[in-house]
User: Fold these one by one.
Assistant:
Number 1:
Amino acid sequence: MISHSSNHLSINATNNQTNISRKPIIAIDGPAGAGKSTVTKQVANILGLLFLDTGAMYRSITLAVLREGIDFGDQAKIQEIAAQSKIQLFASAIADQPMQVLLNGEDITTAIRTPEVTANVSAIAAQAAVREILVKQQQAIGRSGGVVMEGRDIGTHVFPDAEVKIFLTASAQERAKRRQADMIAQGQIAPDLVTLEQEIVERDRQDSTRDHAPLTQAEDATLVNTDGLTIEEVVAVIVKMYETICETKFDDKVNYKVD
Ligand code: DC
């Protein structure tokens, strides 16, 4: 079952895709700490679109696997966990807060942001079976369009036909600074900047070199380096792109097939 309203997404492992009409999709990809979440949320609010943080879904499965104490090499068991996990995502009512996440009914919003989950999520996200399950759910959520989806592979694999594709990046140093500020704002104990930068570079390496849907800029994505840009400037660029595409290319609806 999949249901969504402007601020609520409810998903499980099954979906049936057919040839359907949909509204435009904005895909925002890029490495950790480039500002994707903040930008995605603001763009969605301005344009009245749904938004989806797909990283939260990979984090949810990682948490479930860690809790069960499953060996990361046991791909069959991890696949089973991913297939059985019911992930629900809600837009937070509070600006700049991450999406509220429920796993099988339990609120895991904070639990998926711990250093332990962050350190292990790339290994789980590298598993083909996990990606297959979550990508199907993401495609089901976005099949009607009108959504801003952020992740690593949205423009390359989840919605390769997204009308607006952004590859958001920033220097590792800048991203470490932002990550530290975010952690402090969320009441977490933040490591020093050198440690955070090393972690970010390592996560980039793992996400970019994996076999399945690695982090890479889609050929037709617009590269936006956010070093020295304000959030408002980045948001304005994306909103403008969306509006231009809606005016020029979109005749209200297009046919889109997901399989
Ligand atoms: O955006 P984030 O840091 O919460 O993402 C957590 C991890 O999930 C990240 O290291 C890579 C992975 N991920 C992915 O492989 N594909 C996505 N579409 C989103 C996230």
Number 2:
Amino acid sequence: FARLKAGLAKTRDNIVESFTDVFGASHIDDDFYENLEETFIMADMGYETTEKVIEGLKQKVEDSHIKEPAACKELVINIIKNQMSVDDSAYDFENKKSVVLVIGVNGVGKTTTIGKLAAQYRQRGKKVLMAAADTFRAAAIDQLKTWADRAQVDIISHNEGADPAAVVYDAVAAAKARDTDILLVDTAGRLHNKKNLMDELAKMRRIITRDYPEANVEALIVLDGTTGQNALEQARQFSNVTELDGIVITKLDGTAKGGIAIAIQAELDVPVKFIGVGEKIGDLQRFDPQEYVNALFA
Ligand code: GDP
């Protein structure tokens, strides 16, 4: 929890400072609600989620005849937590053979996240394999190889320009032969080329379900937390292209707008699974909504 708090320091510092002002006010009036709203918008919690939280608070204040701003802080924190509860029981690549299709546009931290995930699961005694199915750029393949070395896991790759489905085909064969627990597939995130992307991902899924029916297939989307509401929009667009099972939000250490994770969790029907709070191999944490809210606000 201390590491999470440290990772989110930029957002937390801003929020804590403005919470001191907001909840230190003498009356619950329009100014109070406006200042609270401003704090959430500033942290990129998004308009929709912010409005819901403010409305929820107004209702509670009225129902419980609360007069003191200071008494609202706990209420607010609990209302936010309630906004974020998502059933994530379906998402579990720990106990079954799994293939994780990792998607997201260039630069969001996809390769880094795959490297971090590989290292985490290997450390827990899982057999991990990577597949370099983003064959669009040679650099992407090389970068993934570097992370495979770092995480000390095997990687299946072809040359630049190869058919991504062919990489997946080979990777599935290797995963079966080597009794791999988790196969992490890097994919090209060309969102501007929706039709191709859709076909490519569908083809990969077909190969996996045909050749590896015993495995669980998950699609994990990686979003850059520093891009704020754009990240939310990207997730929406990708969900039109393929089914999404989980979200990773990266670079939350580099922004004062960490409220974006709350907006994403509250507004999409897909659970945030992991968050990136640094560039190093250990800087990926499991996302726990309750803990996250505590780290930002409490
Ligand atoms: P890709 O193009 O999506 O594969 O992105 P990369 O994995 O190459 O990452 C792009 C940049 O973001 C690199 O400089 C990474 O070190 C950086 N990065 C990735 N995740 C994080 C994170 O959680 N925090 C910070 N501060 N930087 C990150």
